[in-house]
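Write out this protein's structure.
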Amino acid sequence: QPKFHKTSYSATLPENSLVGSLLKSVSAVDINGRSLRYSLTALDSAALFQVNPLTGDVIVASQLDRDHGNSLQVSVTGSNGLTESQTLVSIHLRDINDNPPSFSHSVYAVPVNENGPSGHQILSLSAHDPDHGTNG
């Protein structure tokens, strides 16, 4: 029966990782020396990742976006044709500053009294940015 070197793996990568980028290499051994093939099941990642069936390299297969969730999981299966085993890869996406701030309106009109006191507040604005942490 195939046996993975680890029962689970974890990886962190920026959300702007290029398609084809290596996420993690997973590997298993077969105690009888049979060759192994790897396959991947996307648990919650909608086919964002693929695994090389011969090497166990898990790669980015589609554009990632941290703003839709920062924690993903995939299950990798190692099979010798007779038996198989699985390992879990937990993925954390690191946010990058890829969204501009936006205001609730594109134009603001504010009446101003020309004789009003100097330093008087005439408008208060706030902007929203869907990025997280210091990027938001």
